[in-house]
Batch of 4 targets.
Target 1
Amino acid sequence: MSDAAKKTREALSVAGFLLPAWRGLDRRATINNQREGDRWQFGVEHLLQPGRWRRSWRLAQPTFPSSAANPFPLSLVGSAFARQATPSSRLESPAPPRWCQVARKSPPIQPEAVYQAASLTKPVTAFVALNLVREGRLDLQAPVSRYLPDGYKHRQHPFNPQKAALVDLVPASTLAQIPVATLLNHSSGLPNWTSGKLVPAFEPGTRWQYSGEGYVLLQTVISAVTGEAYETCVSKSVFQPIGMRHSALHLTDNIRERLVNGSSRSQLVFSEANAAASLYTTAEDYAKLLSALLADTALLELTLAKPIAVDPALGLTWGYGWGIETTNHDAYLWHWGNNPGYRAFAMVSLSSRNGFVLFTNSADGMPLAAPLAQATIPAEHGVFRFSMLG
C-alpha cells in the first residue's frame, strides 16, 4: 500500500458549524473529498437534515437561539470522523471511529470539543484592535512607534520556550515606518516568522505578504494601548461578551480536558498567548465570533475598509483581519489555519450571511473545506486555488 493510501486509513476528527440557521433543513447535500490516485472519498449526505446520522457526520438542531447580541442563530453541523477507508471505497455507514495513533487518547468528539484554531487566531486579534479603533484609542494610520516609543522586544523563537531569551530590539525608528493598519492586512513587510532580527522586507503598505510576526507585534501594541495583558483584553472584549465559553489563548486544564489531539508528533503546546496562532476553541465558539462580526455593521465595514490585493486572478484581497474573496455575485470573508496536526477554515457570505467553520485534527483536513463551501455557499471559489492554502 502506498504512503498516500496509508494516510487515508487514519481517522480524522472534524468539528463544524453552519451559520446562520438554515431554511429548508430537509435539503439534500452530498460532499465528496477525493484524492487523485487513491480516489478516497469522504461523504456527507443529508448535511442539512437535523437529528440524523448519515455516514460520518452527526447533525443536530440549533444549539442556541437568536438574541440582540446574536441575531444570527447558528446550526450545529457537529462532530465527524473520517473512518477507515481504502482506495476506491465509499463510507456508507457510521462505523465506530478508528483513531489514528497520536489521537488514541483524545476524548470522544462532542460539540464542545476544542481544537487549535491556528491562524484563525488572527481575526480574534483584529476584532480587539478594531474595537479599540472605534473607541478612539488606536489609530490605524498612526505609526507603531506612537504606541511603542521605546522600541519592540522581538522574540526570535516564539514557539520554542527554551529559546525565549533570544530577543532583538526593533528600534522606534523602524517602527515609525510601519502604520498600524499594515499589521492587520499583512502589508507591513514583516515576514511570517523569523528566527533572526525583525525588519521589514519592503516599504510597508505597498504590497501583501502574510505575516504572523506582524500580529505578534500588534499584540504588543494592544497591550500598550490598554495597559493590560493581551489575553485579558481578548477575554474582556471577545470571549466574555460573545459567550465563547470554551476558548482560551493558552493551554489551560479546562482546555486540555476537551482538546482533540492533533495528528502530529510535533504539535505545538501554547503555554502563553500568541496573537497569531495560539487560540484553542470550538467550532461553536468560533461561529459566535463570526456571528458577532456580521451583526455589527460598523465593525464589519471597518473590517472591509481599504483591502489590499492578494491574488487578483482569484478575486482575493485582504481586509483588516480577514481575507476577502469577490466573485461576480457575492463577496466572502475567509481565513485558514495551519498548525502542526491541525487544519482550520472559516468562510461566510456577506450577502446571504450563510457560512461555515471547519476544524480538523489532521494535516490532511484542509481539502474538506472546498466541498463544504460548495454545499453551504455554492460558487466558483477562487480561494481554494490559492497557493498558500494547505
Target 2
Amino acid sequence: MIDDKMAKMAVNTLKKYCNTSFKTCNKCAVKDACCMPCRVFGNMNEINDVGTFESWRKPSERPPKFDIRQKDSADFQKYINEIFLREAEKYGLPMNTANSIKWSTNGKIKVTFVDNDTTYVGVAKCHPNDAFNPEIGIKLAIERAAQVMHAMNDMNKYERTIPKAGEKWMHFKGHVYEIIGFGNHTERMELVVIYHEAGDCTYWVRPLEKFMSKVDHNKYPDVPYKWRFWKVSDAEQ
C-alpha cells in the first residue's frame, strides 16, 4: 500500500528529476506521463517534510566506531600497551621503539613492527555491523603482522620464491593448481597454502613447507622432477 509519505516523496523525486536530469522535455524518460506542456513536474511544489526516493535510499551516517580521543588517556594507553607487548611476545615479533599502533574512527587498527630495515604491518578493521573492541582488533592486527613476518622469513628459507595469489603451480603428478592465498594454522601458527584446480570447487590446504618441498624419490623413484610443486611458467621455460 502506498502511504502519504511515499506519495509525497514521489512528487519530490519527479520535481528533482525534471529540474536536474535533462535539458529538454524530449530527453525525459517519463515525458509520456506528463500531460501538460513545459516541464510540469519541475513546476510542482516541493513538499518539505519528506525528501526524495534518492535520499531515502542513502544509508544514514553511522556514528564513529572509536572515539579517537581515548588514545590520549593514560589509562587507555596502559591497557593497550599491555595487550600490544603480550601479543607481540607471543608471536615472536621484534620489540623496537619504532613499533607503533594507529587508530581510525571507523574501527581500523594498524600495527607496525620494525626489525632493522624490515617492516611488518598488520591491519584489522571492525565490521560495520559489529561493536568495536580494541583488544580483539589489536590481537587480529598483530596476528596478521606475524603472518607477514613468517612469510618473509620463509622466502629466505627456501631455494626459490614462494607462491603468490593468482599464480599457477603444477604438482609433480601433472595437475595444475591456482594459488588462492595463505592461511595460518590456529594451533601451530604454521603458514599454509590454499589452492584449487581450475573447474574444481574443492579447495586444498597444505603447509607451505610441504608445498615447497622436494619430491620424495624413495617413495616415488620413477618421478623425474625435483620439486613437489613448481610455478607453471618455470616449467615452460
Target 3
Amino acid sequence: MSEGNKANTIPTFHDGYLNGIILNDNIVTLHIRRVDGDDYEVRMSEVEHLRLDDFRQGNIILDLKVWSGRQFSQYADITKLYEPYHPSADQKYHDQYTILLNKITVEVERGEKSFVVITPSYGAELYALCKTIEYKRIVVL
C-alpha cells in the first residue's frame, strides 16, 4: 500500500501542498500532496530541532531539500535552527556557538544527521535537523 524511499531518492514536491504536520515525541510526519495528486508522508525520525514558520491554508512548496552525507551548500543555513547570541554577549558564548555549528556541519556531511529545508512559494517554511528521513507514497482507496 505504500512505497518507501530513502533520502537520496527524493520525489519532487515542487508546487505540491504541505497539508499537515504531526508531532509525536521526536518524530515529525509531514503530509504532502504533489502537483500530480499523489499523497506522501515525509517522516523525520530522531528530530533534534524543528522550525516551522508561517503555516497557512494552502501551503505551496517551491522546493524540499535534504542535506546528508554531502557538503552543505551556502543555502543550507543551520542558523535558522540555531540563532546566534546577541552581539553584546560574552565572547565565550560566541565561541561555543561556532563550535556547535561546526559539529552539526560535520555530522551532516558524514551522513550521521540530515538537514531538511522546505522553501515555500506560499506559506510554510520549514527547517529541521534529524537522524533519518523517509518518504512514503500513500494510496487512498
Target 4
Amino acid sequence: MALLRYANLSYFSDGIWEEDLDQNREPILIDPQWENTSLGKSLSDFPPETKSRKNFFWLATSGSTGIPKLVEKHRDQLERELETWKRQTEDSFWDFKEDTDWIVTVPLCHLYGLIWGRFLPKQLHKTIHYTRDVLEIQNIGSKNYRKTVLISNPDFIGNLIQAGTSLPFKIISSGSKFPVHLSRILRDEGKVELREIYGSTETGAIGFRNPLWKARFLILPEVKTKTISKEDGEILSIRSPFLSETAKDWKGNRETNQGEWENHSLVGQDGFFSTNDWGDLSDLGWNYIGRTDRITKVKGKRISLDLTESLLSSTNFTKEIAVDSVEAEKEENILVCMIVLKKEKTLADFMEIINQELPKSFLPHLILEQNQIPKLPNGKTDYIQVRSILKNYNTT
C-alpha cells in the first residue's frame, strides 16, 4: 500500500524522509496545499500500489493539465544532479562560496524545491530561510544583498516586483518560462543576476539561461538531446542521468474524481524521453517556444499559444494573461485572451499598443478583462477553465 506524505519542512527536518527511504517505504511526496482538494482526494481515496524499494520515492505533480501524475525517482538521481550543479564553473553565477543566506519560496515536495531549497544549500552549509512573507524577504535581502540567493518561481518573483520589494542580488527561477516583461523590468533596473532552470519533474534539470539577456537555454553536458521536426520548429527529446523512467497517470473523471492509476514507461527503447516542448535547437542552445499541445491553427496558420501569450505580456500592461483558442463560426478557431491589467492601465491602451507592435496573426479576436486568472492547485493557469469561460463569453 502506498505511503502518502504531505511533504512540509518538518517531514525533512525531523528525519522522516531519510527513514522512509532507508526502510524501503517508497513514499509519495504530496504538496501540502493538495490536502482537502480533488487532487489529494484522488490519492487518499484511490492509493496507488508501490513496490517498497530502498531509496525510491514518488513525486506527485499535476503539471499544466490539473490531472494528477506520480513520477518515480531515486535518491541517486538527486545526488547526480546535485553534483552537476556543484561542478558548474563556466558561469561565475554558480559560485556560491560567498553567499551566506538562501531564501526559499518554493515547496519542498517539488523536484526543484528538493534540490535547490533543501539538499544543495544544506550541502553548501548555507543558512536557509523558508518564507513567502514579503517583509521578511525584504529584511533578509537588505542585510546581505550581495550574499543572498532567492529560490523562487516567476509568479512569486512577479509579486515581489509588484510590491516594490528590494530583491537579493542572485535569483534562481524555475517552474515555468520566465516572462519577457519581468525580464525587461529586472534588466532595466540592473540590480540582480538571474538564472532560469529548464526541466520538469520527469527530466530533472535539462539546462539553464540568463533570461534577462538570453533566449536560449544552455544544455547541461550530462544531457543528450535529439529532435524531430514539427511545423516550423522541432520537438525536443532528452536522455540524462536525472531522467525518470516510470510514471503513474490518474485515469478518472475530473468532476467525480472516480478512477484508477495506470503505469506507463516514460522513455522509448532508445532511452529518450519526449518533452513535448516545441522550439529550435542549435549549437547556441535550445530556444523553447512552447508546448506542442499549445499549438493551434488560426485562419490556416499554425500559432503557438505560449508564444502569443509571451508576446502579449511583453507589452508590460498586464499582471496576468492567458491565451487560448476556441471554435467559432464555420468550425474556425479564433484566438481569445483573458487579462488582468496593471493599475492605471486600460484595456483601450492595451489594445492600441498590441495593434501597433504585434503581427496581425498574434492579435486576439476576443479580450476579456478579469480580476484574476483561474489557477490550478499548483499555481499554474487552468486553461480548461479559461477556455470554458472565454468560449461561453464568445457565444453570448
